[in-house]
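Sanity check

After download, print the first record. It should look like this:
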Amino acid sequence: MRVTHPFHPLAGQVLQFVARSRCWSGDVVFYLDEQGRRRLIPAAWTDVVADDPFRVMAAGRCPFRTADLVALADLIDRRTS
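Expected structure tokens:
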């Protein structure tokens, strides 16, 4: 499993995947660190979760996901109403 979040300290590194789970902190994946200890990271920050199709097509030209822009537009509508 590769860390894909651009600002994570482990960005680009390949980690030993252990499991994927939904827990109190959301959708996470567990991996083993260099000392063999089990750690977790949000699944969305790895290549375990498929990329948003819009972001794939934008090829880096758009930093936002469609769902996030729709949520922002809804928030603005509620604030201005």
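If your output differs, re-run the checksum step. Summary of this record's structure: The beta strands are 16-23, 26-32, 38-42.
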